[in-house]
Amino acid sequence: MENKLILVSSDTLGQGSKELGEVLIENFFTILKQNESLPKVIFLINSGVLLLSENNLVSPHLEELAAKGVEILACKTCLDYYNLTENLTIGNISTMKTLVELATTMEVITIN
How much of the chain, in percent, has pLDDT values that exceed 70? Predict the structure, then answer.
């Protein structure tokens, strides 16, 4: 997992029920943070940046992953769209250029 980029493009996991998708995405990050082998980067785009908001159940898991050395990056355009730029408390603001650079050098796992 050390050379892996997890690309999160939604605040839910899977298609169908939004409520179920919210449970699934939280479960994903709960289990991920327990692994010995962690990804190098988690990059959040589109509604995935909503996982960084204070009231989201996933944000504490992302904080723990960051504390373990996982780089958490959020798309600036997406943060601006959802009016989250000023309230970002986890990770760093990044750009599509950085995502493209990372995606060309790392294995990408897409979560949506």
Answer: 99
Listed residue (30, 82, 25) closest to 53, CA to CA: 82
Amino acid, single-letter form, for residue 33? K
pLDDT tens digits, 30-51: 999 999 999 999 999 999 999 9
Contacts of 24 (CB under 8 A, 6+ apart): 12, 13, 14
Helices (H) and strands (E) in the chain, counts: 4, 5
Q: Is the dihedral of CA 74, 7, 65, 58 positive or negative?
A: positive
DSSP 82: T
Rg for the chain, CA atoms, rounded: 13
What's the pTM? Answer: 0.94
Q: Among residues 18, 7, 98, 2, which one has the least CA distance to residue 49? A: 7
